[in-house]
Design goal:
The complex is a heterotrimer.
Chain A: H1 2-22, H2 29-53, E1 57-66, E2 69-77, H3 79-103, H4 109-128, H5 132-150, H6 157-188, H7 193-201, H8 207-224, H9 233-236, H10 242-251, H11 256-263, H12 265-269, H13 272-294, H14 299-319, H15 323-350, H16 363-366, H17 368-382, H18 388-403, H19 406-431, H20 446-461, H21 472-477, H22 493-514, H23 520-526, H24 528-535, H25 540-588, H26 593-617
Antiparallel strand pairs in A: 1-2
Chain B: H1 2-23, H2 27-51, H3 58-88
Helix pairs in contact in B: 1-2, 2-3
Chain C: H1 7-23, H2 30-53, E1 63-73, E2 81-89, H3 93-110, H4 118-137, H5 141-162, H6 167-196, H7 201-213, H8 220-240, H9 248-256, H10 259-282, H11 286-291, H12 293-313, H13 317-338, H14 341-372, H15 383-386, H16 388-401, H17 408-423, H18 425-450, H19 466-484, H20 487-504
Antiparallel strand pairs in C: 1-2
Helix pairs in contact in C: 1-2, 1-4, 2-3, 2-4, 3-4, 3-10, 3-14, 4-5, 4-10, 5-6, 6-8, 6-9, 8-10, 9-13, 10-13, 10-14, 12-13, 12-18, 13-14, 13-17, 13-18, 14-16, 14-17, 14-19, 14-20, 16-18, 16-19, 17-18, 17-19
Classes of the chains: A mainly alpha, B mainly alpha, C mainly alpha.
Chain lengths: 618, 101, 506
C-alpha cells in the first residue's frame, strides 16, 4: 500500500505535464501555474509523509526481456532517497510558485510549466530508481529538460547555444555512465544496484574492474554536476529563466551527480583510486570555480560558479569518505543556493532584467526585506554560524582533515575564504551603496517573496539537522549501511579556523565593495595577466574549442571530401564501367526491328545447320 | 508424295514473307509479310493434319486459332502503326529507331 | 484449409486491388486517386494489426504458413527442382510487416504534395507496398527475391519520375547499386537451390544444420561454396543497409526522392537489409557469422562514426538525416556482431524504431520544404515562432533520433551497444563516442531549424494542418509506446530470437 502511494510522487508532475502540453491552449496563465503548483504540492505532501514514515519502500515490475534475463523497473526508497525526494519536492514546489511571478509576462508560460513538471517528474524518478538502467534513463531525461528550459527563450541565440552546450557537454559525461552500466550488466548480471553491491562486496569483481566502473560512473557525475573539466556548460546554462537556474542548475539536477556517487558509494569505497579521483577532482573544482567567481560581473554567473564550487565541495567530502558530510552539504546547499537564485531573480525583475552587478546597488534601502533574506543566503554559503552552510562545510572540512589529505584540506580552507569573499562582493555590489543603473521602484510580488522567505527559513535552520550533539542526519543516513563508521571527533580549532577565514573574506569584501575604502582597480593593475586569466575563465572554453571542436569539424570536412571524391569516385567508376560495357553492347542495338529479325534468323539458321550437322557427324 | 507439294508451297510462302519482313521499308508491308509467314505455317498444319503420320483434327484447330490471333495481331499492329504515323508522320520502318542504344 | 492461413497473402496483395481500382479512374481526378490510394493501404494495415494481435507468442516457426507448389523445373538426374509459393510470419517478420503497413499508409497520406501524374504515382506506391510486405512475408527465398526485385524497380520509377532536381541521376545510381546487390543475391539463391534442392526457409534451415553438423566428413568444396554463398548474401544486404563503403547511392536517394518515397525508403527499404542479415545471415549461417563478427563490429564502428562525423558538417537538412541513417545502420551492425540475445533484439528494435523515426523526420522535412522552399540549414531558423506544432514534433523526432530514453531510439541503441559490450567491449566503447557525435549533429539540425531568431520571410508561415499532424502524431505515439513499453514490440519476436540464439550456441 505504501509503495503505491510513493509511486504517486512522480505521477502528479507527469499528469501535470501531459495536461499542460496537450491543453496549453485551454489553460490560461493562472490555471497553468495552478496546475503546476498543485501537482508539486501533492508530491511534496507525499514526500514529506514518506520521509516522516521513514520506512524503506521497494517496488518492482518487469519491463524488458533480454534473453533469459528480465530488466525490471524497480524502486527503492531508502533514507538517502527520502531526503532527496524531500529536497526536490520542496524546491520544486517553491520554484513553481515563484515562476508565476517571474514568467507571468511570457506567452508560453503553459509550456514553461509543462517542462518544469516534466523535469520534476524525471528528477523524482531518478531519485527513486534502484536500477542503473532506470537511473540512466531519468538521468538523460532531466538532462533534456534542462536543455529545453535553458533554451526556453529559443529565439535568443545565446540561449540556443547555451542549451546545445549543456546537452553536448553533459552527454560526454553520460557516455561514461552508459559504458559503466553496460559493463556492470555483463559483470554483475543485472542492472540492479543491490545486485551490483552484492557482487562488489563479495569480491567477485577484480579491483581493476571496480575502479573502472567507479571512474566511468564518476565521469557521468562530472558531466552532470559541472565538475572540472566538464564544468563549462553550467555557467552558460544561466541563459535560461532564473527559476530554472534555481531549480535545475543549483538545487536538484546538478546535485544528481553527487547523489549518484553517494548512492553508489559502496563502489567508490571499494576502489581507493576512485576515491582519490573524486576527492581531487572535487577539491580542484571547488577552488578553481571559486577563483573564477571572483572576477565575474553577471549576477547569475557568479552564483553559477559558486554552484560549481560548492558541488566540488560535496565531491571532496564524498571522496574523503565523508558520506554524511557530502549529503548534508547537498541538503543545505539546495536551500541556500535556491534562495540566492530566487533572490537574484527578484533583483533582476526589479531592475528590468539587468544582470550586470556593476549597474546595481542600493537595494538594501529600498528593498530591506529582500536584502535580509539574501544576506541570510550569503551568510549561509559563507559558513557563518548558526546558518546552515556553516555546519555542512564544517563537516566536509572535518572529513577531509580526518581522511589525512592535508593538501585538500588546505585547498578547502582557501576555497572557503574565496567563497565568503565573492559572495559578499556580490552582496555589497547589489545591495550597498547607491543605485548605479536602472531604478527599482516596484515591489517584489508576493508569489515571489513567499518562496524566498520559506527557503530563507530553511537556509537558516536546516543546518541543525546534523548539528552537534544530536547528529540526526548521521543517524538517519547510517540506517542499513556502514558508510558512517569512520567518523571521528572534531578538533576544536577547526570550526574556529573556518569561521575566521570566512570572516576575513567578508571583511575584505566589505573594504573593497561595501565601504569602498580599497579599490579593486589597484589589484587588477598589480596582476593584470592573472586578472585577465581569471576573468576569461582560464580560457577553458577557448581551449576546448581549439582542441576538440575544431579538430572534430576538420575530420568531418576531411571525411566529407573522402566521401565525395574517393567513395563517390569509386561509385562513378562502377557506373562508368557499366556504361562502357553498355555502350559496346549498344552498337548492335541500332533500333531497327528488321536488323534484330535478321540477326535472329541468322541465328536460327545456324542452329538448324548445327543440329543437322551434328546428326551427320555421328 | 502429296504432302511434299504442300510443304514446298509453304516453304516458298514463308521465304517470301521472311524476305519481305527483313527488307521492306514500309511497315504496313512488313505486317503483310508477317501474315504470309503465318499462313505458311497454317498450310503446314493443315497438310500434316490430313497427310501426316497421325492424322487428326488438332492441326485444323490450331490453324483456326492462328487465324484468329493473326487477325487480332494485324488489327493491333495497324492500330499501333496509325498511332505512330500520327506521331512521326511516316510509316517507314527504318525511321522507328528511338530504341537505338 | 481455413481462410486464416491466407492472412499473409491478404496483407501482401491487398494493395494490388487498389492498383486495379486506380486503373479505371480518370487521369485528372487527383483527389480521387489520393482517396483510393490511401484507402487501398488500409486493409493491409488492418490485417497486419490483426496478425499482431493474434500472433501466438509461444509458437516456434512460421505462423499462418501456407505453401503451394508453384512450378517445377525437371533436371537431368533426380527430383525436379520445385519452387513453392509459400508465405508465413514469424517473430522476425511480424514487426517489420506491421511497420511496413503503417509507414505505407502514412506515406500515402503524406503524398499530398505530389501533384503531377498522381494516378501512376499511387499505383506504383501501392505496388511498392505489396513488394515490401512480400519481402517480409515470403517463406521462400525465390519468392523473397521476386518481391525484392519488385521493390527495386518500383522505387526506381518513383524516384526517377517524381523526385527533385537530380532525380534521374539518383534513380540511376539507386538502380545500379541495388541491381549489383540483386546480382549477388541471385547468385546465392541459385547456389543454394543447386546445393539443397529447395528454397523453402524451413528446408534451408534444416539442411544447413545437417551440412554444418557433418562438415568434417564432406568434401572441402562444400565449405568453400557455403562461404561464397554467405559472402554473396552479406554483400547483397550490405548494399541495401547500406554499409560503408556501399552507401553513396543512398545519400542521393534521400536527397532527391519525393518525401513519401524517402519515408518508405528510409523507413522500410533499408530495413530489408537488416532483415536479410537476420534471416539469412544470422539465421542461416550462424557459424560463418561468428567468424566474421569482428569484421562486422568494425564495419559498424566505421558506419557509426563516419556517418555521424559527416552529418556534423552537412549544410542541408536532408543530407544530415541521410548521413544519420548511415550512422544508425551502424548500430544494427553492432547488434549483429554481438550475436547474443541483447544485440539481436537491438537489431530488430533498431530496424523498427529507426523506420518510425526516419519516416517521421522526413515527413516533417517534406512539410517544412513545402512552406520554406529550402532545406539549407543556414537559411532556416526560428521556425518555432510561426510553426509551434511543427517544432514540437520535430523536437520529439530529433530527440528520438539522438536516443533519448523514453523514446524508441534509446531502446534499440541501448540493446545493440549492450550486446556488443559482452564480446567486444573496446569496439563498443569507441562506438560510444558516436553517441556524442549524434547529439552534436541532431541538435545542430534542430537548433538551426526551429531555434534562434526567425527570418522575416518565415514569419507568416502556416503551421501544420490536420492532414499532416495527425499521421505525425501516430508516429510519435508509436515511438513513445515502444520507448516506454518495449515489450509491445519485443514480446512477439522473443521466441524466434531465442531460437536463433540457441542455434548460434555458446
Amino acid at each position: 500500500m505504501e509503495a503505491n502511494l510513493a509511486l504517486l510522487i512522480p505521477l502528479f508532475p507527469v499528469i501535470a505535464f501531459l495536461l499542460l502540453i496537450f491543453g496549453r491552449k485551454a489553460f490560461c496563465k493562472k490555471m497553468a501555474a495552478a496546475v503546476g503548483v498543485a501537482a508539486t504540492f501533492a508530491s511534496f505532501a507525499l514526500s514529506t509523509w514518506v520521509l516522516v514514515a521513514g520506512e524503506t519502500i521497494t517496488w518492482k515490475v518487469p519491463w524488458l526481456q533480454i534473453g533469459n534475463q528480465t530488466v525490471s523497473l524497480s524502486i527503492e526508497i531508502g533514507s538517502l532517497q527520502m531526503l532527496m525526494l524531500f529536497i526536490v519536492s520542496v524546491v520544486s514546489m517553491l520554484v513553481h510558485l515563484y515562476s508565476y511571478g517571474y514568467m507571468k509576462h511570457d506567452d508560453r508560460i503553459q509550456v514553461f510549466y509543462a517542462y518544469l513538471a516534466l523535469f520534476t517528474f524525471s528528477m523524482f524518478s531518478l531519485v527513486m530508481s534502484s536500477n542503473l538502467l532506470w537511473i540512466y534513463i531519468f538521468w538523460e531525461l532531466v538532462g533534456v529538460c534542462s536543455f529545453l528550459l535553458i533554451g526556453f527563450w529559443y529565439f535568443k541565440p545565446e540561449a540556443r547555444d547555451a542549451a546545445r552546450k549543456a546537452f553536448v557537454v553533459t552527454r560526454i559525461g553520460d557516455v561514461g555512465f552508459f559504458i559503466a552500466i553496460c559493463l556492470a550488466f555483463w559483470h554483475a548480471g543485472s542492472f540492479e544496484v543491490s545486485d551490483l553491491q552484492a557482487v562488489v562486496e563479495s569480491g567477485q569483481l577484480t579491483p581493476g574492474l571496480i575502479t573502472l566502473l567507479a571512474v566511468l560512473i564518476f565521469v557521468g557525475a562530472i558531466g552532470k554536476s559541472g565538475q572540472f573539466p566538464l564544468h563549462t556548460w553550467l555557467p552558460n546554462a544561466m541563459e535560461g529563466p532564473t527559476p530554472v537556474s534555481a531549480l535545475i542548475h543549483a538545487a536538484t539536477m546538478v546535485a544528481a551527480g553527487v547523489y549518484l556517487v553517494a548512492n553508489l558509494f559502496f563502489l567508490f569505497q571499494a576502489s581507493p583510486f576512485a576515491m582519490d579521483l573524486v576527492a581531487y577532482v572535487g577539491g580542484f573544482t571547488a577552488i578553481f570555480a571559486a577563483t573564477i567567481g571572483l572576477a565575474q560581473y553577471d549576477i547569475k554567473r557568479v552564483l553559477a560558479y559558486s554552484t560549481v564550487s560548492q558541488l566540488g565541495y560535496m565531491m571532496l567530502a564524498l571522496g574523503s569518505a565523508g558520506y554524511v558530510a557530502g549529503v548534508f552539504h547537498l541538503f543545505t546547499h539546495a536551500f541556500f543556493k535556491a534562495l540566492l537564485f530566487l533572490g537574484a531573480g527578484a533583483v533582476i525583475v526589479l531592475l528590468s532584467h539587468e544582470q550586470d552587478i556593476r549597474k546595481m546597488g542600493g537595494l538594501w534601502k529600498s528593498h530591506r526585506q529582500l536584502g535580509i533574506w539574501f544576506l541570510a543566503g550569503c551568510l549561509s554559503i559563507a559558513g557563518i554560524p548558526p546558518f546552515s552552510g556553516f555546519f555542512s562545510k564544517d563537516e566536509i572540512l572535518l572529513s577531509t582533515y580526518l581522511d589525512g589529505r592535508i593538501d585538500l584540506f588546505v585547498i578547502g580552507i582557501i576555497a572557503a575564504f574565496f567563497t565568503a569573499f565573492y559572495m559578499f562582493r556580490l552582496f555589497f555590489m547589489v545591495f550597498a551603496g547607491e543605485a548605479r543603473g536602472p531604478k527599482a521602484d516596484s515591489k517584489v510580488p508576493v508569489v515571489m517573496m513567499v518562496p524566498i522567505v520559506i527557503l530563507g527559513l530553511f537556509s537558516v535552520f536546516s543546518g541543525f539537522a546534523n548539528a552537534s550533539p544530536m547528529h540526526l542526519l548521521t543517524a538517519w543516513l547510517s540506517k542499513g549501511n556502514d558508510y558512517t563508521a569512520a567518523t571521528g571527533h572534531a578538533p576544536v580549532w577547526l570550526p574556529v579556523l573556518v569561521v575566521t577565514v570566512s570572516l576575513v573574506g567578508i571583511g575584505l569584501a566589505y573594504l573593497y565593495f561595501g565601504s569602498r575604502k580599497w579599490s579593486t582597480s589597484k589589484v587588477v593593475q598589480t596582476v593584470p595577466r592573472l586578472h585577465k586569466l581569471v576573468f576569461n575563465k582560464y580560457y577553458v572554453d577557448e581551449l576546448y574549442h581549439y582542441a576538440f571542436v575544431l579538430p572534430a569539424k576538420g575530420i568531418g570536412w576531411f571525411l566529407y571530401g573522402v566521401d565525395r571524391f574517393v567513395v563517390g569516385g569509386l561509385a562513378y567508376l562502377t557506373a562508368w564501367i557499366a556504361q562502357f560495357i553498355g555502350r559496346i553492347g549498344s552498337r548492335i542495338q541500332n533500333g531497327q526491328a528488321q536488323t534484330y529479325a535478321l540477326v535472329s534468323v541468322i541465328g536460327f539458321v545456324l542452329l538448324i545447320v548445327g543440329l543437322t550437322a551434328g546428326r551427320f557427324l555421328k | 508424295m502429296v504432302v511434299t507439294s504442300y510443304l514446298a508451297l509453304s516453304a516458298i510462302l514463308f521465304s517470301i514473307g521472311l524476305y519481305g519482313v527483313l527488307t521492306k521499308r514500309n511497315a504496313v508491308i512488313v505486317l503483310f509479310c508477317i501474315e504470309l509467314m503465318l499462313n505458311a505455317a497454317n498450310i503446314n498444319f493443315v497438310a500434316f493434319s490430313k497427310f501426316g503420320l497421325f492424322p487428326d483434327l488438332a492441326g485444323h484447330i490450331f490453324t483456326l486459332f492462328t487465324i484468329t490471333i493473326a487477325a487480332a495481331e494485324a488489327a493491333l499492329g495497324i492500330a499501333i502503326l496509325i498511332a505512330l504515323y500520327r506521331h512521326v508522320e511516316t510509316a517507314e520502318a527504318d525511321q522507328f529507331k528511338s530504341l537505338k542504344g | 484449409m481455413s481462410w486464416i492461413n491466407w492472412l499473409p497473402a491478404l496483407v501482401t496483395f491487398f494493395p494490388l486491388l487498389g492498383v486495379a481500382v486506380l486503373l479505371f479512374l480518370p487521369r485528372e481526378k487527383t483527389g480521387l486517386h489520393r482517396f483510393w490510394g490511401i484507402m487501398a493501404t488500409l486493409p493491409s494495415l488492418f490485417f497486419a494489426l490483426y496478425m499482431y494481435l493474434h500472433f501466438d507468442q509461444g509458437f516456434k516457426g512460421l505462423q499462418w504458413f501456407q505453401s503451394v507448389i508453384w512450378f517445377q523445373i525437371p533436371i537431368l538426374q533426380g527430383e525436379p527442382w520445385t519452387f513453392h509459393y509459400s508465405m508465413g510470419v514469424d517473430g522476425l517478420s511480424l514487426p517489420l510487416i506491421v511497420l511496413t503497413t503503417i509507414v505505407s499508409t502514412l506515406a500515402a497520406v503524406a503524398s499530398l504534395y505530389i501533384r503531377q501524374a498522381t494516378k501512376g504515382y499511387y499505383q506504383l506506391l501501392l505496388l511498392l507496398e505489396t513488394g515490401m510486405i512480400g519481402v517480409f512475408a515470403a517463406a521462400n527465398l525465390f519468392l523473397f527475391f521476386i518481391f525484392f526485385e519488385i521493390t527495386l524497380i518500383v522505387t526506381f520509377f518513383l524516384i526517377g519520375k517524381w523526385g527533385f532536381l537530380g532525380k534521374v541521376k539518383a534513380a540511376n545510381r539507386f538502380l545500379l547499386y541495388n541491381g549489383l546487390g540483386s546480382g549477388f543475391l541471385l547468385f546465392a539463391m541459385v547456389a543454394l537451390m543447386i546445393m539443397f534442392g529447395s528454397l523453402e526457409y524451413s528446408d534451408l534451415e534444416s539442411r544447413m544444420g545437417q551440412v554444418m553438423g557433418q562438415l568434417a566428413l564432406l568434401p572441402p568444396q562444400i565449405e568453400t561454396t557455403l562461404w561464397a554463398v554467405f559472402i554473396a548474401l552479406m554483400i547483397a544486404f550490405s548494399i541495401k543497409l547500406p554499409v560503408f563503403p556501399f552507401h553513396s547511392w543512398m545519400l542521393r536517394t534521400h536527397v532527391e526522392a519525393p518525401t513519401p518515397v524517402v519515408m518508405i525508403h528510409s523507413g522500410v527499404l533499408l530495413k530489408m537489409g537488416a532483415y536479410g542479415f537476420m534471416r539469412f545471415g544470422v539465421g542461416l549461417f550462424p557459424e560463418q557469422m561468428k567468424e566474421i563478427a569482428v569484421l562486422i563490429a568494425i564495419l559498424g564502428l566505421i558506419n557509426i562514426l563516419y556517418g555521424a562525423l559527416l552529418a556534423i558538417v552537412q549544410r542541408e537538412l536532408k543530407s544530415v538525416l541521410a548521413y544519420s541513417s548511415i550512422s544508425h545502420m551502424g548500430i544494427i551492425l553492432f547488434g549483429l556482431a554481438s550475436l547474443n540475445a541483447a544485440g539481436l533484439k537491438g537489431v530488430m528494435f533498431q530496424a523498427v524504431s529507426h523506420g518510425l523515426i526516419s519516416a517521421l523526420l522526413f515527413f516533417l522535412v517534406g512539410c517544412m520544404y513545402e512552406r520554406t522552399r529550402t532545406t539549407e540549414l543556414d537559411d532556416l531558423g526560428g521556425l518555432a515562432k510561426s510553426m509551434p506544432v511543427f517544432s514540437g514534433i520535430f523536437l520529439v523526432g530529433i530527440m528520438a533520433l539522438l536516443g533519448l530514453p523514453g523514446l524508441s531510439g534509446f531502446i534499440s541503441e541501448f540493446l545493440s551497444y549492450l550486446g556488443l559490450f559482452q564480446n567486444y567491449p573496446v569496439i563498443a566503447s569507441i562506438g560510444a563516442l558516436g553517441l556524442i557525435f549524434t547529439v552534436v549533429y541532431a541538435l545542430r539540425a534542430l537548433l538551426k531549424t526551429t531555434f534562434g531568431p526567425i527570418h522575416e520571410r518565415y514569419r507568416l508561415l502556416n503551421d501544420l494542418n490536420v492532414n499532416e499532424s495527425v499521421p505525425m502524431m501516430v508516429l510519435v505515439a508509436l515511438i513513445v509506446l515502444i520507448g516506454v513499453y518495449p515489450d509491445s514490440l519485443g514480446a512477439p519476436m522473443q521466441v524466434t530470437l531465442d531460437l536463433i540464439v540457441s542455434r548460434i550456441g555458446g
